[in-house]
């Protein structure tokens, strides 16, 4: 008997997104110019930009479109990379930091452009408040705001003192905050399904329930094998992010999957809503907490402690405790959905976007900040295949070392590192 088709994880997103008809699995021998592996934001953006340039493109998705991080994430748009422009200048120099700044700017613009082209409403709301959890972090926060205002005077980025932060968040847990009107949040699975539709309309072929099992070189380029099909392609794009596992060793060695979790409460009455606006909130811990109101009035509250690889975690219990720390009045709320997913970390905490070898391109490792960066990564990979290697060449030169410890020790070493970061969060 054939395996039952995979379904999306049981999340509030899956419950509030339209059902997409299952695309047929890849069958037999298929020929294409580009075979993309993974149908999340990265793979679908690459597919769209290739198909729009009439490059024959086939996407293999192991389960369903948006099954991975793209259909489960916090939905929060953080302007910029995980490292602030100040850190980027310090670590990589002014020139590299400036190009990364342009890429981050284009990533946001691309997200809004795609959103505007979709027929599916992905519930976009503008505004992001980053809460500062220790008073001494306010100096860094203020420097960040000044720096943003210097490079983009109209961005509206504002530093908030503890009182103003408490007024907006409905908790006096934090020492300050940064408000960014050009951040925001959306429904990631609806966005992903909308993106898949754009890619298909442009001519890309999507195959679901089609895990790629092997990639080998052949005279025409590459053979990508699934259990029922062989795809012959000139070039391959790996867009598996935190789910790459053993398919390709170079990406696997540089990307480490860590868990993050989200709960969706029952819908709240306006009197119980803690946030006093429709913006998203996140804090500045290493194991950050992130929350926002859904369009149907639920509180979506997320966080993670990273090093768990176990599947049987009491997600609801764990996040309820974190929620109660900020909002004791919400401790007894009913939790209707609880789910988790793989965040893909890299050592520098910048995405790995590069040509792995001639004909094999990869992007992933967004380190929890991939909502828009994965979209621009897909476009950069597509541009390189179409002949413009400028940005891919630049990004391929950025260092992205392999995680130490090899296959046997990388998770134990990660456990030690994460314990250290959790301790630092606790210390401040
Ligand atoms: C819980 C959580 C919260 C997050 N919150 C945020 C946030 O608020 N803001 C933000 O910017 N980022 C956030 N992120 C990160 C963000 O979701 C990712 O950076 C982004 O979705 C990456 O997209 P992707 O397409 O590269 O990977 P994914 O969406 O993970 O897609 C990879 C796909 O590859 C498929 N695949 C894997 N192996 C194979 C194979 N062998 N054959 C075929 N297909 C395969 C998988 O099934 C999967 O669908 C969060 C992530 C998680 C898990």
UniProtKB/TrEMBL annotation:
Instruction: Report the residue ranges that make up the FAD dependent oxidoreductase domain in this protein.
Output: 33-383
Q: Does this entry carry the keyword Cell inner membrane?
A: no
InterPro entries cross-referenced by the UniProt entry:
FAD-dep_OxRdtase, FAD/NAD-bd_sf
Which named protein is this? FAD dependent oxidoreductase
A single GO CC term, please? cytoplasm
Its lineage reads: Bacteria, Pseudomonadati, Pseudomonadota, Alphaproteobacteria, Acetobacterales
State the superkingdom.
Answer: Bacteria
Q: Name one GO molecular function term.
A: oxidoreductase activity
Give UniProt keywords alphabetically: Oxidoreductase
Quick check: keyword Oxidoreductase in the entry?
A: yes
Pfam families according to UniProt? DAO (PF01266)
């Amino acid at each position: 008997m054939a395996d039952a088709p995979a379904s999306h994880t049981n999340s509030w997103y899956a419950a509030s997104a339209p059902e997409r008809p299952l695309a047929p699995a890849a069958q037999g021998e298929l020929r294409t110019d580009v075979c993309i592996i993974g149908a999340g934001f990265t793979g679908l953006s690459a597919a769209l930009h290739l198909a729009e340039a009439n490059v024959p493109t086939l996407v293999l998705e192991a389960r369903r479109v948006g099954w991975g991080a793209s259909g489960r994430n916090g939905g929060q748009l953080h302007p910029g990379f995980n490292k602030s422009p100040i850190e980027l200048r310090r670590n990589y120099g002014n020139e590299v930091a400036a190009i990364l700044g342009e890429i981050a700017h284009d990533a946001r613009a691309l997200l809004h452009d795609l959103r505007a082209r979709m027929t599916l409403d992905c519930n976009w709301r503008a505004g992001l408040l980053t809460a500062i959890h220790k008073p001494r972090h306010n100096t860094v926060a203020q420097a960040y705001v000044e720096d943003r205002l210097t490079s983009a005077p109209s961005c509206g980025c504002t530093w908030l003192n503890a009182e103003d932060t408490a007024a907006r968040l409905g908790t006096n847990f934090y020492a300050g905050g940064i408000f960014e009107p050009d951040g925001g949040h959306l429904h990631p699975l609806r966005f992903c399904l909308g993106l898949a539709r754009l890619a298909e309309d442009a001519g890309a072929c999507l195959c679901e329930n089609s895990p790629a099992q092997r990639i080998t070189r052949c005279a025409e380029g590459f053979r990508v094998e699934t259990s029922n099909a062989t795809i012959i392609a000139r070039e391959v794009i790996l867009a598996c992010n935190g789910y790459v596992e053993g398919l390709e060793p170079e990406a696997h060695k540089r990307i480490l999957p860590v868990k993050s979790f989200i709960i969706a409460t029952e819908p709240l009455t306006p009197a119980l809503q803690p946030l006093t606006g429709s913006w998203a909130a996140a804090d500045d811990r290493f194991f950050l907490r992130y929350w926002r109101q859904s369009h149907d009035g639920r509180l979506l509250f997320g966080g993670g402690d990273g090093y768990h690889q176990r599947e049987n975690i009491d997600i609801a219990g764990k996040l309820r405790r974190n929620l109660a720390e900020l909002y004791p009045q919400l401790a007894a709320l009913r939790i209707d959905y609880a789910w988790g997913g793989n965040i893909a970390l890299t050592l520098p905490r910048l995405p790995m976007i590069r040509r792995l070898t001639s004909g094999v391109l990869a992007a992933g490792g967004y380190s929890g900040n991939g909502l828009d960066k994965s979209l621009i990564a897909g476009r950069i990979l597509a541009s390189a295949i179409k002949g413009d290697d400028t940005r891919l060449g630049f990004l391929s030169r950025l260092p992205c070392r392999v995680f130490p410890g090899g296959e046997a020790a990388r998770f134990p070493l990660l456990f030690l590192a994460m314990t250290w970061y959790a301790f630092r969060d606790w210390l401040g």
